Amino acid sequence: MAKNQFNIYAISDPHIGHDDFNGKGGIIRHANRPFKTMIEMTEVIKTRWNRVVRPQDVIIILGDFIWTGGAADLIKEYIKLFNGRMILVMGNHDKKGYSWYMNNGVQFVCDRFAWEFNGKRILFIHDPANVSSEELQKYNYIIHGHHHQNSPLVYTHKGVTHVNLSVENLKYEPINLVTLLSKLTQGYYTRNKR
User: Which pTM does this prediction carry?
Assistant: First the structure.
């Protein structure tokens, strides 16, 4: 049997470059991340990301990828550090326009997208609060970020399974999406609560 030519990974909220631009301490302080400096955090995330994601792989970034207070050249340099064909689902800290990201190394940019996997309807979005109650009922899984460490990896909200792929829940490393979805459909996370 031939190996897959590419894998699909997902992650949310790396906040690369999100230092203390506004006097609130930046993402390390805000999300209580175990790093002393932004340089250390970036290096750890980049190393773990590139250890699993190859250049030919697809990586879905569920928002808040790189935030530098708007320094476009710095954002471009950061994008080059990370492997994979990137799909960016815009987060509240992704401040450039769609075409800007696509002209600088990201293959596709959107606010949200739906996908079907093994008969299950999935919505990929940054902030699950932006899904109406009516819309919520259309999906089996809402895969998101934005919550950081404030909600677990897998939880149920209004009868729908939510998956919080914020880096804090993933040990700062992208997760293989097919493996995750297979475990979800097999009930792994309900049997093995984290």
Answer: 0.92
